[in-house]
């Protein structure tokens, strides 16, 4: 293991940064969570594995191609520990958007990269990932468009909605490769993968004997059923399309669907209180994706009042910041009960960002975001290994000067 005493030297530095993303790329923002990697070394590239047994189970991508994952085997003290990461990348909520999606890596393995950089929580370097670097680390590719929950089809449009089957086929394949012997396991994911982590957390726990330490980490997955700037519910309407089109109802947690409608049960705020497995929620209080796509989308802002603010937090007016503080308050209310459980963890920082566990600069680097002098990687590690209680909530914007804010052109 690496000596981490140097962390204490750098955490006091003042650091504010911004990464520029073209506005048109917003819908695939989570697809870029690892592309802003500022690792000192070249990122470790891991090749793709197609799940050959999946076709017989009907576990296929939107276009009928085989699902896939990237697997880097653990060693030494991590040989019997498994980190399973669910890839993010938005959703498709109608036939048109799903037909488009199947011409991309988010709907077809034909277009997937043959190797991916493993950075942040997936890094194989102890300097970049002190607690999980030598674990078996897996990234399950996302090609269904419903956070691994759908199970239906649209024959006319030649669409297969088989997210739940893909999840099961991938897990079964990994179990055959040694995961059934895991002493420790962590399910993680960012954005749509962070939501999938919440949805499948207890299912993941159920795969292992009681003696296995099993926990879940949701990064940027706390999507809120919030009121948008026009007074409507943009994200709820969108999620309703996803759940209905893809037949996700039957695969959502029963603890929720036995008293709420299926669309409500796609929102983490109605799920997290009933999850039995220890869960860590990592989120920014001003999530860039939610501001852009569910709080202030262009469709709800015909006069462009929010245009500058949604692209760059520094250009928000006083009333706009006040509106965003209301969003933060909604988030804090949602996690209040969840945080009372000793087994759960929390890291909500006051940044305008999205996905922080898979990017090296935000996960663990000299200038990573911190709350109370603790970087995200150390907070997650302390929680997973029961070294310390981690219930960290930042003071409201603009008090945190360690953020890596996202700014859009």
Automatic annotation (TrEMBL):
The region annotated as signal peptide is 1-18
Q: Which InterPro entries match?
A: PAE/NOTUM
Instruction: Spell out the family assignment given in the record's similarity comment.
Output: Belongs to the pectinacetylesterase family.
Keywords in alphabetical order? Cell wall, Cell wall biogenesis/degradation, Hydrolase, Secreted, Signal
Question: Nucleus as a keyword?
Answer: no
* Name by which UniProt lists this protein: Pectin acetylesterase
Stated role: Hydrolyzes acetyl esters in homogalacturonan regions of pectin. In type I primary cell wall, galacturonic acid residues of pectin can be acetylated at the O-2 and O-3 positions. Decreasing the degree of acetylation of pectin gels in vitro alters their physical properties.
Organism of origin is Trifolium subterraneum (Subterranean clover)
Set out the biological process GO terms recorded for this chain's protein: cell wall organization
Its Enzyme Commission number(s) read 3.1.1.-
> Which GO molecular function terms does the record list?
pectin acetylesterase activity
Pfam families the UniProt entry points to: PAE (PF03283)
Q: Where in the cell is it found?
A: Secreted, Cell wall
